[in-house]
């Protein structure tokens, strides 16, 4: 029973990590796209050079975070997938909400 509880706890933790990193990646992508629009608007309106440089810096920061977050997400996803695969044959676990949530987030991340 303790092993099952420990496994469910690990599933819940790893599912939360994958979910958080997936949301983070989407946020950085949205932020980068929004910042590109802001930068284009500043350039078109003939804004001050300092404002343009600041917008470029913010865009660069957002763009740099995307690959970092993708790498972390891939590592977390692989860890969760390995755990789901290992626990998939245990009837006491694969019928739980934690297991179903883990499979659902793997499907969601795999489709993105």
From TrEMBL:
Cited SUPFAM superfamilies: Tubulin chaperone cofactor A (SSF46988)
Predominant location: cytoplasm
Pfam family, any one: TBCA
Highest taxon of source: Eukaryota
InterPro entries the record matches: TBCA, TBCA_sf
A GO cellular component entry from the record: microtubule
Cell compartment(s), UniProt: Cytoplasm, Cytoskeleton
Any Gene Ontology biological process: tubulin complex assembly
Family: Belongs to the TBCA family.
Protein name: Tubulin-specific chaperone A
Species assigned in the record: Kockovaella imperatae
Lineage, top ranks: Eukaryota, Fungi, Dikarya, Basidiomycota, Agaricomycotina
